[in-house]
């Protein structure tokens, strides 16, 4: 009994001793202080090379497409529509007939005014003949001066009447012309808002159709007021800045245009400035009311470019891990000019040709040894001399 108890105690001391030594064995040669095991195994990373490129500098904003010109076509006279001469969605040109209002009442008014003028012209002719005779009688002292003056006033009155008749004819002619409704501009018709046979009035609030000019077309967008100075500095003396209209996913470029207008005041409620760009839009990829992303090209700058994943953010600013010739990762403070579409333009801190860490930074510390992926042979095989991961050669 006592022998068994002594053996149990001795075995317990031996078990505790083996557990105390096991952490050192488990750590192995790779164990060490810090991330990546300084003094231990190299940290596998993906490396990239800093390249010198020309990079466009953009300002990005959200914009709305607006028709270059929009007109709601109204009738300018009252009457019944006897003909609709356009099809919804049709492209029309300035002067094309859109609708016809019954011209009969206006033609009758014009004929009546013309007849009135002819009547007054006949009276004027008689009054002038009488005035000529009265002038001879006045010279011969046969007619009193008062009678002559009365006849002369009658002639002047009839002249004014004839002029009034001509004005009435001109007005009736204009009213008759208004019965033919034409397009005031080149554009595309929308949905028809009235049908043939209806009575329209010049005071109606709704029109016949809306015509929009689709090419050229405008895009209105906003940018933070802090960008205003940069825009003015890069605005060329001749010409304008290039603007790109992109889809909602900010991937495909829909059209390229030019900056046309910078608004004359800043919106104090939002702290933004409104701008307008003009696009030719010959392929009609831009449509009124469409939301697009707008990129305003300020300049094209040449400088070192790296993948966006190279840029790391710390409490003291941006930095990157630079791989030295001895495969050691060193921390380098950098200044980033722009990050766009997966690439970062660097203002300070990196030079072309340097190797930087693109992936695997979370395991690194300053001075950590790094291990780069081994290049593979053409065809995807391993390096010569390496162990094959393919089929066994049959030897044990």
CATH architecture of the largest domain: Beta Barrel
For the biggest sheet, the summary is:
6 strands, antiparallel, barrel
Return the string of H and E elements.
HEEEEEEEHHEEEEEHEEEEEEEEEEE
Tally of strands: 23
Coarse shape: elongated
Number of helices: 4
Q: What are the segments in which pLDDT stays under 50 over at least 5 consecutive residues?
A: 15-38, 380-396
The CATH superfamily of the largest domain is known as Efflux pump adaptor protein, beta barrel domain
Describe the structure.
- The structure is a single chain.
- This protein has helices at residues 2-27, 104-139, 145-178, 228-234; strands at 43-44, 46-49, 51-67, 70-73, 79-84, 91-92, 97-101, 180-182, 187-189, 199-200, 209-212, 217-224, 242-246, 253-267, 272-279, 291-307, 312-314, 317-323, 329-333, 335-340, 343-348, 355-359, 370-371.
- It has 396 residues and is an alpha+beta fold.
- It folds into 4 domains: 43-50 and 311-371, conserved putative lor/sdh protein from methanococcus maripaludis s2 fold; 59-68 and 214-302, Beta Barrel (Elongation Factor Tu (Ef-tu), domain 3), CATH 2.40.30; 69-100 and 186-212, RNA polymerase II/Efflux pump adaptor protein, barrel-sandwich hybrid domain (OB fold (Dihydrolipoamide Acetyltransferase, E2P), Beta Barrel), CATH 2.40.50; 103-178, Helix Hairpins.
- It has a 6-stranded antiparallel beta barrel with strand order 3-12-15-14-13-16. Strands 2, 17, 18, 19 and 22 form a 5-stranded antiparallel β-sheet that branches.
- Helix 2 (104-139) packs antiparallel against helix 3 (145-178).
